[in-house]
Specification:
The protein is 36% helix and 27% strand. With 171 residues, the chain is α/β, with parallel strands linked by helices. Strands 1, 2, 3, 4, 5, 6, 7, 8 and 9 form a nine-stranded mixed sheet that branches. Helix 1 packs across helix 4. The protein starts with a strand and ends with a helix.
Amino acid sequence: MILVNTIHLGQAQEYSKSDSPQLYLLMTVDSLSGELIDLDGEAAWNSIITANRGKAIYANLCGTWCKGCMKSFSDVKAHRERFEDKGLNYIYIWYKSDSKEIEVLIEKYQLSGKHYFLKTEEQLKYIQNKLNNEGFPAYFLLDKKGNIFKKVAAFPSNPESFEQIEDLLGL
């Protein structure tokens, strides 16, 4: 079962200490109404960066509807096996995807790491503009300071992806 948490301006609200995969909604509380509202694109990006600062990240912008995404998920296992003890972390940024379908894919492909759910096209466009990439799937690398190390990282099936990750990790 996926535990759904919200990100409030960069702070993950932990509702459980479970080891279950976490799906983070990029939202905040409206100061006037007290209602949960979607973060704008910049705040969504900054929340993801803040929540993962101090970690080297191999990130995937993906969707349950994306056939290329499904194919690439099976290739991530080789990365996990090679870099798991070297400090590489994984994040998945889902767009236009059903949480139940995400849960099935996480289990099927053993997609360990943090999962973020983009709810608005504005959030997606901001991230795509940061990466200069409008395609799906899109892989990118973040360094431990939260800087984009590689805007367009090689797909996990490409042997070059291993070299890019080694460069990120300083291996």
